[in-house]
Amino acid sequence: MGDIDEDALQDTYQRIAKEIGVENMLKIYRLCRGEQISFPLHMYSRERVISAVKKQYDGTNLRELADRYGYSRRWLRSVLKNSSQLETNNKFI
What we know:
Blueprint: H1 11-20, H2 22-32, H3 46-56, H4 62-69, H5 73-91
């Protein structure tokens, strides 16, 4: 694409180039140009977080898991409680 005149870039591309560099901005441009992109609020999928938290929770690390995955402790507590209730109910079926 030749030399890039950063001063002539659209504002969005200028912000991206400033944050991650011109070469990486060009990769995003080539990959997504013309598309409207909306990034989810949470980086991690709820379903995958539920699975990971069930495996990683040791009874003392709720805050750490909430910080790691970007979900509230309240939501994670609810997930763990519901999971525990489901497992208990399944034992009697």
